[in-house]
Amino acid sequence: MKKDPIMIDGLPSAGKTELDSLTDPIDSEKLLHDVRSLVERSRLRLAQSVNSELVLLYWRVGRRIREEIITEDRADYGKRVVEALSDSLKSEYGSGFGRRNLFNMIRFAEDYQDPEIVQTLSAQLSWSHFIEIIYLKDPLQRQFYAEMARVERWSVRTLRKKIQGMLYERTAISRKPEVLARQELEALSEEDRMTPDLVFRDPYLLDFLGLEDTYSERDLEAAILRELERFLLELGTDFSFIARQKRMTIGDRDFYLDLLFYHRSLRRLVAIELKLGSFDPAHKGQMELYLRWLDRYERRPGEDMPIGLILCGEKNREQIELLQLDLGEIRVAEYLVELPPKGLLEAKLHEAIRLARGQVDLREEKREDEIPRINP
């Protein structure tokens, strides 16, 4: 049955919907917006639920297969079991149960044996995320990438880039003894508590700036601002840009901080100074002055003490250790505007990790020796 047009002041309303005819237009728009929001949120929860259930399913399948073949020492036996199982499952449930993915599931169950951890991570990481993580050799490395991807909501593509860029090896957390590093990662897992050692890198990879062989500090600063989005990606997702050449009037002199950022998770202002050449101990005093000024005039209620990052072309490890700049509010990091061959960079980072962990162990031993012992 054909409906008569809706009349407004005796004239048919053009383009009016039945929803508009029932209520005031402003109310109808709000109602439509609210219902759309409900639908979209439900869709998102449904997608997350499906993803979580898929990850848990793959973990359970991997664990069950692992239980079957773990008692056998023969690799060919496990291979035959997986191939036979894959042939049967693929015909019923599709390519997701192919031979390669079944081996991925087994590896997943081997790397993650705690069901509570799997349950937590599966709520925010997809199976594709886990594929990028499970074949990393170091357990701390796997835990770092899983937790950072969860907290910072990395896409699979971003996670892959972070791994290829050796982010873990460039953070201070990788240079700590395993016990201390694990404690910090567990705090991130249980409380979402971010620390400077998880945030700052060394070196920073600034090859995307496209700088020529010779450039000034002003050129470096300008290039960073031109490529600010990519620079922020290298810094980390929680950084927000605040100011360039931040003026600080102290006494009768003006000082200028190169770059000022804010980190949401740390709840701190982050002062960055750019240095072309090698780190000089005088840079520490300059940064301390800037941090004290920011603490007095720019720090807001609820924020922690500002922290500083000195980005330089080169640094001397012994100077950093003697000044204890790996422990306080000032960090020193190198930057690379041209990437060396990956093998060379990897060797350099692993050597830095080895030396740093050795220094921490020596400090711990010295501290224990200084503790007075009471003879029974």
Polypeptide structure, described:
- 55% of the residues lie in helices and 15% in strands.
- The protein is of the alpha/beta class.
- Strands 3-8-7-6-5-4 form a 6-stranded mixed β-sheet.
- It starts with 6 loop residues before the first strand and ends in a 6-residue tail after the last helix.
- Residues 5-14 have low confidence and may be disordered.
The percent range for strand residues is: 5-15%
| Poorly predicted sequence stretches spanning 5 or more consecutive residues | 5-14
Structural class: alpha/beta
Mean pLDDT: 85
Attribute tags:
376 residues; alpha/beta; six-stranded mixed β-sheet; two-stranded antiparallel sheet; 15 helices; 8 strands; globular
Could you give a short description of this structure?
By secondary structure, the protein is of the alpha/beta class.
Give the topology.
Layout: E1 7-8, E2 11-12, H1 18-22, H2 25-69, H3 75-93, H4 99-111, H5 115-122, H6 127-133, H7 139-151, H8 156-164, H9 178-191, H10 196-199, E3 204-205, H11 217-226, H12 228-235, E4 239-250, E5 253-263, E6 268-278, H13 281-297, E7 307-314, H14 317-322, E8 330-336, H15 342-370
Parallel strand pairs: 3-8, 6-7, 7-8
Antiparallel strand pairs: 1-2, 4-5, 5-6
Helix pairs in contact: 2-4, 2-5, 7-9, 11-12
